[in-house]
Amino acid sequence: MLWLLLSILTNSALLLILKAFDRFHVNTLQGIVVNYLVAGSLGFILSGLPLPLGELPHQPWSWVPPVLGVLFISIFFLLARTAQTIGVSVATVANKMSVVIPVFAAILLYHESVTVLKIAGVMIAVVAVYFTSLPKEKTGTSLWRHLLLPVIVFIGSGIIDALVNHAKNRLVPDNQLPAFISLSFLTAFCIGVIIITTKIIRGKEKFETKSIAAGIVLGLPNYFSIYGMTRALGSGIMESSALYPVNNMGIVIVSALGALLFFRERLSWKNWLGIFLSLGAIAMIAIHLN
Prior knowledge:
- The protein has 290 residues and is mainly alpha-helical.
- 77% of the residues lie in helices and 0% in strands.
- It contains eleven helices and no strands.
């Protein structure tokens, strides 16, 4: 249960820190890239390398970190933009309601239990994302364009969760988990460096030194958010199709409270309806009828 609590708290902290980037005028992309260097290095510092470096390409999971690296930096950046432009609560629900994707994957691939409540919860989850993402007031932007960011975050986050779950269940031994996580983060860092270097060469931006401090602050909870979840998955406290919903329910609650407390984030009744629906959906998905 300790690993689950760690995952909830660190995931919630991530969204609040990303929101703070905008308030303190931190270059979001640069902060995210530095964060991946910090998170990736932290795993090797704390756990070391469990096998010779030359053997890494021959591991059955060697293809996963490059794929996760691409997904990490792209979805994380879009998650930041969602939190900054639409709201932390919207970003949280879009990110965590993506639980429907790993839940379906766990049922199909690992033959985990399926109930009427789980299926109903999945359907309600989609409705919850819609209501939470609705603008608080009329804007000049079309509804589709307003929903586009949350929808992409929803799909991308679900793919990441499903891939991490598959790697943990089928590919990565427990003693290699820190290396697996770190390599995924460092891949995202390398991709980000290429993007930023290209922008600097083209004169589109300059590297800001405060991005280093911001990246350190973000990188610490980022590493432990993934590490805590993978450890929780391996603890056997519950099936992954139940663990993800319980984890995400906690993150939705803590993030919404944090956004209200630190940023005075105001939501419409439709947004609050979406949040309550999301909690109900998560609870329904997590319930197991024997």
